[in-house]
Predict the 3D structure of the following.
Amino acid sequence: MRKKQQQEIRQLLSSRAHSSRDLIAGLNVSQPTLSRLINSMQNEIVVMGKGRSTCYGLPRDIHDKPGRFPVYMIDPRGDARLYGHLTALQGNQYWWEETEGNGELFNNLPWFLLDLQLSGFGARSFAYRRSELLKLPRKQSDWSEEDMLYATSKCGEDRIGNLLIGEDSLARYFELAREMPAAIELESRKWKYPQLAQKTLAGEMDSAQIGGEQPKFAVCVDDQDAPCHMIIKFSPAVESNEAQRYADLLVCEHLALEAVRLSGFSAARSRLVIAGNQAFLGLKRFDRRGALGRLPMISLRALHARLQAPCDNWIDAAIRLEQAELISPADARKLRWLSLFSDLIANTNQHFGNISLIPHHGDSYLLAPGYGVRPTLYEPIAGEIPVRLFTPPSIRNEVAADLPSALDAAILFWKSAAVDERISSEFRQICYENCELLKLRADGPKLII
Ligand SMILES: Nc1ncnc2c1ncn2[C@@H]1O[C@H](COP(=O)(O)OP(=O)(O)OP(=O)(O)O)[C@@H](O)[C@H]1O
Ligand SMILES: [Mg+2]
């Protein structure tokens, strides 16, 4: 009888975790009988929570190993602290136990760990270097959520933010910290960056373990005797129209970040290095401090997974987060402003990975400095540079108050790009025309609020 009931429990828990009440009803037994049964299966069942809210689940193996992982937080000094434990359960669920706090059952990978999954260029180059070693599908696009978690728990020592999953990643973090190469001197960037770009493309070195489609690597540079972690995006070294356009767009990203800052909003500090045909855009990381310290950050996408809200557009996201008191009215304005500014500089890349937040007091967030803003409308496609017409989208009434400042900043951006000799004359002409287009708009009728 007991064996049959144990089998019934396994059957019920194989699809998802259940409360005692569910199991009592499902098995048609009394509470004491259920307690005895659970006791007899304590080696194979995960008991979650206490008292009336106790739930039971069956653990899930990840790549033939128990799917229970410690999660560590690297603090601003570079020390690691245990943040909690993640247990994968049958039915694709996860049980999260915070070291100082309660547990929580998730139906998917917990939202605060989503950004540790790789995507874009970083994911492709990670897969190229590691898929054979980790016995994972060769192409990262074929990886399942379990593959991604497994890879992150094995080699996730240098992801964005301050979290890492798994003992193996922690061991690699300490190794990385011990063997960190000397910071790159400012003067040597012109010849070191092209070498590092070449190695990154050849798959000979770990590129940045971060998302985004643009090729990039991560370095620590010597900034007036202080170590400074940077992400370096780079254009192709070959001489071609396509390579030139990528270089033009990196110069534009540098100018756009400057225009954001001049309007009184924070944006990643950037430095541009031109070496031959190649442009290198260095972005100072706001999730790193000193040589080893790390700071938390979370993408707007992950925060929306927490809210179970759609990743629709930055303006609605700003309204949503302000209403939920997750960000301040000032930061909501900045997010609306960034959306407007992006529209006006032909940045078609307004996805929810391109905005990040920094955990603040209690359960609120600060908007992280802006990044990744450039006129992506003009990006080459499949080796071609299609002729693209820029028509700024119409402005929603609720952001009309922010329009004058965003328009001024966008005009400033196009104007500075139109005269920047690091940009090709062909693209400068496009920037000039866009500047004139926006000036006409600035002189046209407005909504008076
Ligand atoms: N200054 C920074 N400090 C810390 N993290 C950053 C910084 N800039 C970018 N990131 C992180 O790196 C990721 C990739 O950066 P970014 O979006 O600029 O790259 P990209 O290749 O241009 O992306 P996209 O595919 O959106 O065009 C971002 O999603 C963000 O998580
Ligand atoms: Mg991006």
Summary: Residues 212, 353-354, 372 surround magnesium ion (ligand 2) (CB under 6 Å). The two ends are 75 Å apart (CA to CA). The longest helix spans residues 241-262. Residues 2-58 form a domain with the Arc Repressor Mutant, subunit A fold (CATH 1.10.10.10).
